[in-house]
Write a structure and sequence with these properties.
This protein is α/β, with parallel strands linked by helices. Helix content is about 35%, strand content about 25%. The chain has seven helices and seven strands. α2 runs parallel beside α3. The chain is globular.
Length: about 200
């Protein structure tokens, strides 16, 4: 690549640094809103613009809190009316705090040509195999769930459905597929996870 090409490629990069609602967001939001009981306490991990948290809160009357590492995402979620904390995954929260945790994780494998190393890259890329952030989430999420708590996890076939379910099993969670949609290059699924 020449120096002349570099600015042109940079112009093609999305300037928005907060993940905006897309097919995966809509599928997760609608699935969770249909499942969550009124009065439940729910944590939306990686809330981004706050779209999923807002839909679930509005449609289910659950008490919803969002968390995101990106300060720009926290600002957008707050502007949408979502209560949000800045933090990494579930680390800011005490034990047994939530009935439900939902997460639309960064699940795309890293591109072979490298990464942009910005907030948007962190919002969509889940490491070499797309499962690094999911693995970190599964390490600690049970701590913040109340007994009988549930997790709703959005995944993609590009991340490896069986591999994610095996990873969940290795952390003590059973799983079932609640919803799925096919798109041009992937199938999106919402898994419900619960402790054995």
């Amino acid at each position: 690549m020449t120096d002349d090409e570099t600015p042109r490629l940079a112009e093609l990069r999305e300037v928005d640094q907060v993940y905006q609602p897309a097919e995966d967001s809509h599928l997760l939001a609608e699935t969770v809103a249909d499942e969550v009981e009124s009065g439940a306490t729910l944590l939306d991990v990686g809330t981004g613009s706050g779209y999923v948290a807002d839909v679930v809160s509005t449609e289910s009357d659950a008490t919803v809190v969002g968390v995101d590492l990106n300060p720009l995402a926290c600002e957008q979620a707050r502007a949408r009316g979502v209560s949000v904390l800045r933090g990494d995954l579930v680390s800011p929260f005490r034990g047994d705090a939530f009935d439900v945790v939902c997460f639309n994780p960064p699940y795309l494998p890293e591109a072979p040509e490298g990464v942009w190393d910005d907030w948007m890259e962190q919002a969509v890329t889940g490491g070499e195999d797309g499962r690094a952030v999911i693995a970190a989430f599964l390490e600690d999420v049970e701590r913040v769930l109340r007994p009988e708590g549930r997790i709703y996890l959005l995944i993609s076939t590009v991340t490896g459905v069986d591999a994610v379910r095996s990873l969940a099993e290795s952390h003590g969670f059973k799983s079932t597929v609640l919803a799925e949609e096919s798109h041009s290059f992937e199938r999106l699924l919402v898994l419900r996870l619960w402790s054995h």
